Amino acid sequence: MQKKTVFLVIVPLALAAAAVAVFLSQSQHEQGDAQTLHLYGNVAIREAQLAFNSSEHIAEIHVQEGDHVSKGQLLAHLHTELLEAQRDEVKAILLAQQQMVAKLEAGSRPQEIRKGQAELKAARATAKAAVDSYKRKAQLLERKLASPEDVENARSLADAAAARMEAAQQALALLQAGPRKEDIAVARAQLAAREAGLVLARQRLEDANLYAPADGIIRNRILEPGAMAFPQTPVLTLAFINPVWVRAYLPEPALGQVALGTKALIHTDSYPDKVYQGWVGYISPSAEFTPKNVQTPELRTRLVYSVRIYACNPQGELRLGMPVTVTIALDQALSNTTANRCEP
Question: How far, in Å, are 161, 284, 338 from residue 330 at the CA level?
Fold first, then answer.
């Protein structure tokens, strides 16, 4: 009888203790879920269509589809024979213009000035002889020993000689003064134009090369060697792989608990035991209805905000389009920064 009484007392106590344990466990689980946000999305396809900034036939493409490339790597180049000839032509014109500017800035040579002085001396002597001849014939005219026509011709010759002397004098003055500053300014401006033309020719030659703008993978090889390339026609498609970002949708009630820079954990089905560190890099400023390809029909009418969760992907395990699960702890301190954390 006593054993039966003890049994009746212990059983209710045990049941009560079990109920309390279950209640505490459920409370802790609910509290944990309340501090964690789960989002579902896909690794977004970030890519660039690479094209030449020039029009010419493609000479060679150095990469194949699936190749990993580094920023600044040469991917392809065009035929450059015509561009090289244009560059050499501009260089020759530039050299000629440089010599022209140097000539104007140097002014007249001493030999040119001495030549001008000699020409002026000869013009003076010629003018003096013409004037003396005119005077003699004028005296002879008074004595009726010369005709008026001879005197008039002598006077014309004297005036012409005086004009040539004046011209020689002014020419010597120009040689001594040197080139006009306006002519030097024009020559310098033309030199600057030639220098700009050479820069342009070199840039056109450089545009015949196609470089990778960032690290990535060649997804498509659209054109082949021999094809005509245009700035409007892509040659290669480059997929960016580091960092990648996950496109997901944030429920409106959680908007105030997630900010730019919030840390996130990314899980994939392909690597279930591996966790990728990420951060919130973008939150849409406007709400939208949940896309139909993301949620169930019951959730499609809920307002959400598009977010991007960036993640480092140095080993290339996060493939473009891969479905992932994003976990965000809501009790973390907000850093409010979107800096690229993949850079060393």
Answer: 105, 19, 18
pLDDT surpassing 80 at residue 159: yes
The strand pair at 74-78 and 244-251 is best described as: unpaired
What are 304's strand-pairing partners? 251, 288
pLDDT digits (tens, 9 = 90+) for 302-323: 778 889 999 888 777 888 888 9
**Identity of the amino acid at 340:** N
Question: What is the end-to-end Cα distance of the chain in Å, rounded?
Answer: 78
Q: List, in order, residues 6 or more apart from 238 with CB less than 8 Å away.
A: 47, 48, 50, 69, 212, 213, 214, 216, 217, 218, 219
For residue 208, count CB atoms less than 10 angstroms from its CB and return exposed for 0-12, middle for 13-18, buried for 19 or more.
buried
In whole angstroms, give the CA distance from residue 3 to residue 1.
5
| Strands 244-251, 47-50: pairing kind | unpaired
Q: Alpha helix (H) ranges present in 178-249?
A: 181-206
The one-letter code for the residue type at 158 is: A
CA 134 to CA 138: how far, in whole Å? 6
Residue 262: strand, helix, or coil: coil
Q: Is 294 helix (H, G, I), strand (E, B) or coil?
A: coil
For the chain, how big is the Rg over CA atoms in Å? 46
- Please give the pLDDT value at position 33: 55
Residue with tokens 């012409």: 160
Q: Are 238 and 219 in contact (CB under 8 A)?
A: yes
Distance set, CA 281 to CA 77, 210, 247 (Å): 36, 30, 11
The per-residue pLDDT for range 110-130, each reduced to its tens digit, is 888 888 888 888 888 888 888
CB atoms within 10 A of CB 294: 16
Higher pLDDT, 316 or 343: 316
Structure tokens at 247: 């496109």
Beta strand 209-211 with 74-78: parallel, antiparallel or unpaired? antiparallel
Token match 């802790």: residue?
Answer: 28
Q: Give the amino acid at 277.
A: Q
pTM value is 0.64
| H/E element, 123 | helix 110-142
| Max CA distance (Å), the chain | 188
* pLDDT tier, 205 (very low <50, low <70, confident <90, very high otherwise): very high
